[in-house]
Amino acid sequence: QVTLRESGPALVKPTQTLTLTCTFSGFSLSTSGMCVSWIRQSPEKALEWLARIDWNDDKYYSTSLETSLTISKDTSKNQVVLTMTNMDPVDTATYYCARTWDLPLSYYFDYWGRGILVTVSS
Amino acid sequence: SSELTQDPAVSVALGQTVRITCQGDSLRRNYASWYQQKPGQAPLLVIYGKNNRPSGIPARFSGSSSGNTASLTITGAQAEDESDYYCNSRDISSSHRGIFGGGTKLTVL
Lengths: 122, 109
Fold this sequence. Notes:
The structure holds two protein chains of two kinds. By secondary structure, chain A is mostly beta strands.
């Protein structure tokens, strides 16, 4: 059974750095083809893909946010960590991690965590 | 980057068939995947690949594609299908990045 769970602070102040952890089970990020993405959803409801890390440690970032994002993994702990620097109130959103499949003709997220609401406010 | 466009809202009478569409250049070379999201819940994958349903997704959900447009069809919509629906594909300008449509609010009348 595949599960993912996000953890981190519910509230951060503007300019601070956000660190979120995705702890998963039911698969291994050392298995060829496995990927995990971070996705967020603003209160206005749009889903936005943020970053992805692959089994071989390849990393990909949203073009608009790549200067502020860092993704990493700890395979032994089954965890993926996302850091986002210089947080702003517009970054207030629910942050999800999701198992990701990047196949020749399709790209999809088959399991999602429940999400964590992060509010950016002083 | 590329974009996926969805109609903001669609309605369907109970038991009727509804099609939700998603348009974008990425869809000329990639299948869309579709997600259902109910209030307060994470998105749930309902269609991926050419027309594949994960285990537990009812057969009334199906996917299709033509040119730059992908469609999610619900045949015989049920009250519990009232949700937000999002499409996703890859960014054609950077194929390892994902993109989402803006979402469609489906109302079952």
